Amino acid sequence: YLLLSLPSDSSWDAAYERELQTFQDIGDAGEIWFGEESMARIIRWLEKQKVPPDSPMLDIGTGNGVLLVELAKSGYTNLTGVDYSPAAIQLSEKVTEKERMSNIKLKVEDFLAPSAELSGFEVCIDKGTFDAISLNPDNAVGKRKQYLRSLCRALKPEGFFLITSCNWTKEELLNEFREGFEILEELPTPKFCFGGRIGNSVTALVFQRK
């Protein structure tokens, strides 16, 4: 498994400030976490599962909001993105405005200390946010437990949780989310060969809340 190089807490805002300035200068929304294929993988699963287009969906740690834009282009109409970085939400707003996506709600929220209104979602999606929390040197174990509590509050019973990670194996994620969730499916991700052994650099799983 490859460890993703992530900014520290103090530099997330600075990173998004740079991306915001770049977007204002040249219209580039910045990095797509795990690449475009990761977004297509999520959308294919939602379509295969026949998730209704008006199902409330939450993008946890939305960053530049590009996943939400792709979901909207695919016909999903009840979309919310949260990020604890105000600069990220500013960037998301710029990106969605450019794409004329008026059905996307964006909020500055710390998912580890969410507001009461962050609830009632049928689908929650995480691409790298749980990874970032896991690498936090300040009480990472406690933060992971708080993440699980927040997820249980945000997601309706029987709702779907789609997580993409480059720091956790399938078995580790099953252990992390064993309380309150059951695994539905492992989504196919690119494989690599190292030393004659084949493995995955990214894990993508779908859980259902019990």
Task: Explain the overall architecture.
- This is EFMT2 methyltransferase.
- It catalyses: L-lysyl-[protein] + 3 S-adenosyl-L-methionine = N(6),N(6),N(6)-trimethyl-L-lysyl-[protein] + 3 S-adenosyl-L-homocysteine + 3 H(+).
- Residues 55-185 form the Methyltransferase domain.
- Keywords: Cytoplasm, Methyltransferase, Nucleus, S-adenosyl-L-methionine, Transferase.
- It holds the Pfam family Methyltransf_31.
- It is a single chain.
- Helix 1 runs parallel beside helix 4 (86-98).
- The chain is an alpha/beta fold and 210 residues long.
- It contains seven helices and nine strands, in the order ααβαβαββααβαββββ.
- It has one domain (29-209): 3-Layer(aba) Sandwich (Rossmann fold).
- It is globular.
- It has a seven-stranded mixed beta sheet, sandwiched between helices. The chain has a two-stranded antiparallel ribbon with strand order 7-8.
- The protein starts with 8 loop residues before the first helix and ends with a strand.
Q: How many domains would you count in the coordinates? A: 1
Mean pLDDT: 85
Distance between the termini: 29 Å
The CATH topology, please? Rossmann fold
**Strand pairing plus helix content: what structural class?**
alpha/beta
Please name the CATH architecture: 3-Layer(aba) Sandwich
Which term fits the overall shape? Answer: globular
Helix run count: 7
Going by CATH, the homologous superfamily would be Vaccinia Virus protein VP39
